[in-house]
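=== RUN LOG ===
request id: a7f3
mode: sequence -> structure
chains: 1
length: 113
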Amino acid sequence: MVARTFHDEEAERQVTATLAALRAQGPNDVQGFITDGSSSPRVLITEINARLAGGFLLSEAAGADLVQQILNGLFGLPVDHHRLAAKPDVYLSKYVAVLAAGVAPAHPTGGTL
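=== RESULT ===
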């Protein structure tokens, strides 16, 4: 996976409006598409998950203080939304591999591992 942070005003407005309409609070993973502008809508939200996104490390690397602000929210302390902003043009390259999959071998005592 290769990802890069960016800022898009229209996407920010759409995400903010969608989360407000759902009354979503806390960490939410909002996914969608930004088109080249030849189709409407230009920003299309396809999915929202109440969890940290797979790109969490990218957001942190780009300066977003996610962990502290989530903890603040959990303990009823003020959440500084300005500290959740990420700098544009920071990238993350991530590699995930499955090393093995299959039926577990029999255990010497007769069970499986």
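=== NOTES ===
The mean pLDDT is 90.
The radius of gyration is 19 Å.
=== END ===
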